[in-house]
Amino acid sequence: MAVQIKRSSVASTLSLTPLIDVVFLLLIFFLVTSEFEDEERRLDIVLPSATSAVPMTAKPREVVVDIDAEGTVYIGGKPTSIDLLQSLLESAVANNPTNQTVVIRADREATFQPVVNVMDVCNRAGISDYSVTTQEGPGS
Asked: Which of UniProt's keywords are assigned here (predicted)?
């Protein structure tokens, strides 16, 4: 006697409950195993001293320098001279000597000379981590 297997419509639908359970388990796993910054500094230890160590006096922050089509340099939306830019960058390096970054945003119609001037000021201020931003995609 042959056995007939009936296919029901319930078996053909996909149950999302096990998938949701797995996602929640992964979320709990990553939350439990991640290390938090505050927990790393709870230990009462005395750090070694170094003569060349310089403490950070401000939170690391990138400086954004904008250059419009006429070649005017802006910081924070305000026009800035090259001399003032250098003093601002030097004070930023004094607050964050190891990893101060500068982002240079130049208009596509601007000549290259103001960009080179800002790069030169970055080098004189001791900032080697600067970048010129571009727009993704082909130029039009």
From this structure: Cell membrane, Membrane, Protein transport, Transmembrane, Transmembrane helix, Transport
